[in-house]
Amino acid sequence: MPDNPKKNITSVKVRMYKMGTGDCISLKFQHEAETTYTMLFDCGCISGSKARLTPFVEELINDLDGHVDALVITHEHQDHVLGFQRCEELFVEGLSVGELWMGWTENDAKPKVKKWKTDYGQKKMALARAARQLNEDMNSANFKNQLAGSLAADELLSFHQNFAESVQGFASLHVNEDEREYKGPLKGMQIAKEKLERQHEINYLSPREILYDIEGLDGVRIFVLGPPTSHAEVAKESGEAGESYQHNKKLDPEDYALDSLRFQLQDSDYFTRTMNFDGDVSSNTTLAPFSASAFASKSTFRKSPYEDPKEAWRRIDYEWLQSSANLALRMNSLTNNLSLVLAIEFEESGKVMLFPGDAEFGSWESWQGIEWNKVLPGSDLTTEDLLNRVVFYKVAHHLSHNGTAQSIGLEMMNHPDLVAMATLNYDVISSGWKSTMPNRAILKALLERTKGRTIIQNTDQLFFDLDNEIPLADKITEYQGKMAADEHQQYTDSLIENDKYVEVSISTR
Questions:
Q1: Which SUPFAM superfamilies does the protein's record reference (predicted)?
Q2: CA–CA separation, 324 vs 176, rounded Å?
Q3: Contact 181/131 with Cβ under 8 angstroms?
């Protein structure tokens, strides 16, 4: 017998921590009852104090026995890295890392990445400032006076304030909460990169790479699908009808307002300028959409009805700030499409586990163009073939409409053993996200394809229908009834759930 017989992976324990809307997922690869390799995907949620997140991180570190073989950071959003910031001491002192994996877009040594991050940092600063100003203005007495006398003044005020809160929610994904302006990478990302004890240099991964012969992962190949390498792919948020899923409510007031702003700002670069908000334009015209030469000073005008408080409804002081929604949406999609995407294949059975981070349509579409035969000469492997064999899908972007591709994504996942896991939790979520998460079309498709084996971080307050009459938990139970008795028993036996996490065991045989 060989000195080191192969220990092919027979199952994987996947544990999702219930920190809030955001990803913190650990994997234990097992040969029979022996854990041979561990992996952690991200550690974040949209918001949370140190006190609230500490019990989850303590449980995580304890379960991993203080060491993870591979820490995977998919992308730089708070809902994926906030845990490292809030619980810095616990991570620095309590968790050692074998390898740290990130997408090629995090390699600051590359001139292309450095330039992109500098430019992108300016947009983050602009978004943070615009969101802050928008919130202040929408809650100001002047703005309330502008609406006074309208037939639906209260409703309009509520709409604008909710709109501002939504923009602030997007901005908070990109900027540290104690910064009034962008000053650099998120603290959680910095801690993961620079402070965690690790045994090797950071492994920056690019599409078409295949990781194999990893100690502890006998019989496993890991295919790197994203992030894309072209700007056009990164910038693409959605596809044509049938390629990507449609928004829950195409024409409800809030969504219509957001969508109508998309065309107003084809180039968001003007947000890298700034503006004083006392009515005068400074020599440093930061956030103004026009150059300083286009403005006249107030002294050149005689007092007009525009100055009369009774004529406040005529003012348009705040209208230009509404376009910050477009900047927020575009930046959010750009960062999501920069997610590191991994497909983990078990060679003996051909089964695949898919971890796409928060990839949106542009990333999904780029995977289809990868020519694996150039990496595996003589092979006819395609990305579609990998998707056909997916038995575990970590649902991208918390069940939002643009997080899962349709014809080139979910509809290709036709394995009968498919299990899906979504990191959505209404206990901790940005209020503006509730209109898109969960997307009902994706939810229905997942339940059908998994026969109810769709695990959501928290189903409280979630409904299957748009009228909020059918509790999602009831519908999951209904779909699980489509499984054969032994199949259902096997699935329920594989589940463990408590107040801190939900865990499922995936057979790789």
A1: Metallo-hydrolase/oxidoreductase
A2: 18
A3: no
Task: Determine contact, residues 79/88, Cβ cutoff 8 Å.
Answer: no
Residues shown for the chain: 509
82 vs 59: CA distance, rounded Å: 17
- Please, are residues 357 and 102 in contact by the beta-carbon 8 Å criterion? no
- For residue 54, give both structure tokens: 């500490």
Of the candidates 491, 478, 471, 474, the residue with the CA atom closest to the CA atom of residue 448: 478
Which stretches in the chain have pLDDT values below 70? 1-4, 122, 149-151, 177-184, 249-331
- Structural element, H or E, at residue 391: strand 390-394
Closest Cα to residue 386, out of 162, 180, 226?
226
In a domain, 255, yes or no: yes
The alpha carbon of 117 is separated from its chain's Cα centroid by a whole number of angstroms, namely 18
Sign of torsion over alpha carbons 35, 38, 40, 41: negative
Report how many helices (DSSP H) and strands (DSSP E) the chain contains, helices first: 15, 16
d(CA 280, CA 300): 12
Q: Please, are residues 441 and 410 in contact by the beta-carbon 8 Å criterion?
A: no
pLDDT of residue 278: 33
Within a domain: residue 143? yes
Compute the distance between CA of residue 259 and CA of residue 471 in angstroms, rounded to an integer.
29
CA pseudo-torsion sign 116, 117, 122, 127: positive
Domain that holds residue 133: 114-184+249-331
Beta strand 495-497 pairing with 454-456:
unpaired
Q: Residue 426: which residues within 8 A CB-CB, separation 6 or more?
A: 21, 434, 458, 460, 461, 462
In a domain, 16, yes or no: no
- Model pTM greater than 0.85? no
State which H helix or E strand residue 355 sits in: strand 352-355
How many folded domains does the chain comprise? 1
Crossing angle of helices 78-86/50-63, nearest 10°?
A: 90
Q: Which sign, positive or negative, has the C-alpha torsion 230, 235, 237, 243?
A: negative
Task: Provide the sign of the torsion angle of the four alpha carbons 166, 169, 174, 179, taken in this order.
Answer: positive
Q: Mean pLDDT across the chain, nearest whole number? A: 84
Provide the pLDDT for residue 355.
98
Q: What pLDDT does residue 26 have?
A: 98
Give domain status of residue 178, yes or no.
Answer: yes
Quickly count: other Cβ atoms within 10 Å of residue 367's Cβ: 26
Angle at 344 (CA atoms; ends 341, 346), nearest 5 degrees = 165
Structure tokens at 175: 């900027």
